[in-house]
Amino acid sequence: MHPARLVTAFSCLLVSLASPARSAGVESRDRLSAMVRQDRSPIDLDADFASLAPTAPGCAVGVALAGAAPLIRSHGLADLEHPAPITAESVFETGSLAKQFTATAMLMLAQDGRLTLDDDIRRYLPEMPDYGTPITIRHLLHHTSGLREQWSLLALAGRSPGTQVHGQGTILDLAARQKALNFVPGTEFLYTNTNYVLAAIIVERVSGKSLQRFTDERLFQPLGMTHSRWREDFRTVVPGRAMAYAAADNGFVANMPFTNVHGNGGLLTTIGDLLRWNAFLDDPSRLPGGQALAAALQSPGRLRDGTALEYALGLEVTRSHGLRLVSHSGSTGGYRAWLGRYPERHISVALLCNNGGIDPVGLGERVAARALRAVGHRGEDVADTPSPAIPATARVLRRDLASYQGLFRDLVTGELVETRLVDAELRLRQGESQALIPGDGDQFRRADGDRVRIARREGKPTALTIERGSVLRHFVAVAPARTDDDTLAAYVGTYYSAELDTRISVVRQGDTLVMRQPFGIEWPLTPSFADGFTARLRGTTGFVFTRGLDGKVDGVAAWANGVRNLRFARQPG
Questions:
Q1: Nearest-CA neighbor of 118 among 53, 61, 171, 186?
Q2: pLDDT value, residue 390
Q3: Are 181 and 228 in contact (CB under 8 A)?
Q4: How far apart, in whole angstroms, are the C-alpha atoms of residue 474 and residue 162?
Q5: Rounded to the nearest 5 degrees, what angle is found at the Cα of 168, between the Cα atoms of 255 and 149?
Q6: Which among 283, 280, 297 has a CA at the least distance from the CA of 102?
Q7: Which of 86-90, 132-136, 444-448 is the least confident region?
Q8: Which of 269, 313, 316 shows the shortest CA–CA distance to 137?
Q9: pLDDT surpasses 60 at 414
Q10: Beta carbons of 138 and 117 less than 8 angstroms apart
Q11: Nearest CA to 506 among 562, 450, 431, 558?
């Protein structure tokens, strides 16, 4: 759309906002009119996409305000091989944004009396092991089940997405093989895709229909989401689909999700359909039981100890610009997506991209900020509670700060942090590096307000605790890495995981170690601490070699994204 036409279109949109006949039920006519009068500037849906070349993959973006037709813009190409522009009708894949639709299908079955969210999943998935504490459907939907992440498990097995085609049965079999969980169900939140694939399988088993047929009959068709469907078979021809891409040295390469796994993701849809969905959440009367359905979807979960989560059922409920934000992002292959809704201002933003280099959350929220300004919203994000002032006497640098330097590891999550003295200042590296301001005794405080305690014995650090509000993280001191010949030679061997039915070999390659699997799969290992290494596998994966009572290496445990302490036993010979 030409910029001049955009201004005209939005002027008409503002007039429609002020019309009494089209005002939203929750907002009064006077309030909407007042909001419009405060700022009559248009929503510029081009400014944030200026860096996208018109000949590159890009995005479609849509904004909906109460009482007005959606404003939709597109940028870039849907197909680089047969240059075709992205349009309002282009079909994209949504990645994890799809989880809210799987959760909706589950809630519909609960409304039908076919199941309850507190049912043990083994009632419907008898293949799953008994872990001593039941995993409920609610645990799946809130990501509190403790189940390990499917994509990390497949990567550790040498079967990463893109190297093999996986289906629903692959994930169920993989999950059923796991002899342990990341944590006791209900005690932690850990986002894993396995939860929602199993949820999709339950929907199919209970309803007797495919997820596609069930959601099409009960959800998509009734809401007019006629372009939405699940990617049950990646080979299906989808008219109008935008191909997905990733940046490369010489331009872009195709990066399509060649998998039949769905429920966790795998929804194909358009900007218009996503805005129709958000319109339903604003006015749930369009479906039988819609009010209860929408309320349940947007109700955040809780852990066993009562701790509130930001995650509801396939949706995140947070705050942004001083308002309640209901949203979810998505990423699969080179597709990126974000769907956000500000219920108090009746504003929805949908973003669908086929360029893997785009940050959908940041871009979507910038568009949302423009929409909020256009209706006169001037609220800012709620400021964090200021940290208590640090007494002046505690600001005096210690002379013995060097004795607090060390490496520390969280034995539960596998996270490694480091304290180091830099220019007479003690700093803690946990992702980013922050200064530690000394307090009383062994107490410190970070700039972000977290309290840090470093325990010592005989002048050496033994443990580190990070306190954020009521949450405590415990780390134990670990020795630095050793890379002498004898140490590296002790790790060389073959290791087997029954949970993955996979063997890996650790071999010397010059002065380093490499993990190998059949058919040319190699992961160079980088030393990180004594017996600990990292590899570039789904981000960064940690491998910790274990030792028996005799001190000899008897296995290796993997700590990947969404996978904790997956053991490979050393094989004889």
A1: 186
A2: 41
A3: no
A4: 37
A5: 70
A6: 297
A7: 444-448
A8: 313
A9: yes
A10: yes
A11: 558
Beta bridge partners of 546: 555
Closest listed residue to residue 295, CA positions, set 284, 286, 305: 284
CA distance 508 to 515: 9
Beta bridge partners of 502: 497
pLDDT tens string 144-181: 999 999 999 999 999 988 888 999 999 999 999 999 99
For residue range 505-536, list pLDDT tens digits in order. 999 998 899 999 988 899 999 999 999 999 99
CB neighbours of 176 closer than 8 A, spacing ≥ 6? Answer: 125, 127, 128, 129
| Sign of the CA dihedral with 140 first, then 141, 146, and 148 last | positive
Name the token pair of 549.
Answer: 């009572």
**What pLDDT score was predicted for residue 26?**
37
DSSP conformational letter for 216:
I
Q: What is the pLDDT of residues 308-323, one digit of tens each?
A: 999 999 999 999 999 9
Q: Is the Cβ–Cβ distance between 491 and 553 less than 8 Å?
A: yes
CA–CA dist 180, 410 (Å, integer): 18
What are the two backbone dihedrals, phi and then psi, of residue 46, each rounded to the nearest 5 degrees? -105, -30
Tokens of 393: 């006497």
pLDDT tens-digit profile of 229-278? 999 999 999 999 999 999 998 899 999 999 999 999 999 999 999 999 99
State the pTM of this model: 0.87
Sequence-distant (≥ 6) Cβ neighbours of residue 236 within 8 angstroms: none
**Residue (of 216, 193, 204) closest to 314 by Cα position:** 193
Q: Which two tokens stand for residue 320?
A: 């942004």
d(CA 395, CA 222): 64
Provide the 3-class DSSP secondary structure of residue 325: strand
Distance CA(550)–CA(81), nearest Å, equals: 61
Burial class (CB within 10 angstroms; exposed 0-12, middle 13-18, buried 19+) of 62: buried
Q: How far apart are CA 1 and CA 373, in angstroms?
A: 21
